[in-house]
Amino acid sequence: MKDSARSLAVDILNRIDQAGLFAEPLLDQALSRGALTDIHDRRLLTEIVYGTLRMRGRIDWVIARFYKGDPESMDSGVRNCLRTALYQFFFTDRIPAFAIVDEAVKLVKAIHPTASGLVNAILRNVMRREKEIPWPQIEADPAVHISVVHSHPLWLVKRWIALFGVQETLGLCKANNEIPPLSIRVNRLKATREEVMRRLEQDGFNVRETQFSPDGLVLMHAATPVRDTFSYKNGQIQVQDEASQLAGFLLDPRPGEKILDACAGAGVKASYLAEIMQNHGSVTAVDISRQKVKALRENTERLGIAIIAPLVMDLREDPGEAFRGVFDGILLDVPCSGLGTLRRNPEIKWRITSQDIRRHADLQKRLLDGVAGCLRPGGRLVYCTCSVMSGENEDVIADFLSRHGDFRRIRPPDIIPLSMVTDEGFFKARTDCHGTDGFFGAVLQRVNLYENIPSQDRRPHP
Question: pLDDT tens digits for 65-81?
């Protein structure tokens, strides 16, 4: 069968389910190889993949009511054919119902011929009885209503209701299902925000300034992939969510300082630290992945940054004397559940478990312990996640401070908006409140324990 937006969407969803992959790189691969040349087909592919992932819980609930067997035992390809067809029926208004059924049946015949009659029957039955579907009511059971209607796992909805209450959880789940804008930051070493804004508008983009970040722009109605623009190729911009941009200001790095980015990945945050420092000082960017460090080097070169030193290293282990007590500031953006990024990565909510969150917290504590000794007395350490779960955020910080008497929590710098600073002094951004990804940050300072002790009585801190 010739590649179409619908067949490619089903193939991508199958690979996400079977191999634990993410939608974004799979879509990039499909679109870059030129299988779809029409711009409308390319947009339809993206919409079907992300839309089906966002609304999968609601769609699966419908399938379970119109299929007499166990949906979990259904062939994954057949199930994803049903999911994509029902997404189009419920959430798009430009595709006629008969065309949705016809395309779905053709697609199933190509991958699982004996299931075509089943798919045809389920789809026609759903479309005929749409008004009779007994959606769960919020008055009867708020958690079940939010889980089904707003398409989030029930265990997660219950956890959020316990943390945030019913109304905030409802707002958060709704926000997670919205299509996110594309946020970028301007490389202040190469251009001003106004210059980049004008050029992107000339390139056909609808552009506005970010609300909170002084260097950010939001791109809407993109005329072309942002990586194909002059501004990107010449290192004037970097794709980065607005909340993530603010992590650099949490650390408040100054020109001439020695900074450590301890989980640097591809260097998005490390490069911003260097830009804030005016390319003066040093940023040691560490990651355990050689592939990510390679991408970091390439990105640093594109952005014209000279002060980043990339290293492949596992900071769960003792980094040794060369790192001990030498850094003025440390950014620790730890691996986490990613539950603050569900509007961009909706597949996460269908694979994450409460056990995963506990495993993440164990790793986060080890990393925090591992980098603590790298900070000089008086230096700042920023711990951050793109999670909204207290088990990965406040609880990790409380555990660390209970075991490290030479650290204290301090409030974020004044540049951080007050609406994002809690009474306890944590940085918190939420999709439903701020229109950014969900993000958490804590600023810690290493205290000089010998400050008031005569020099002859000082003993090394173990």
Answer: 999 999 999 999 999 99
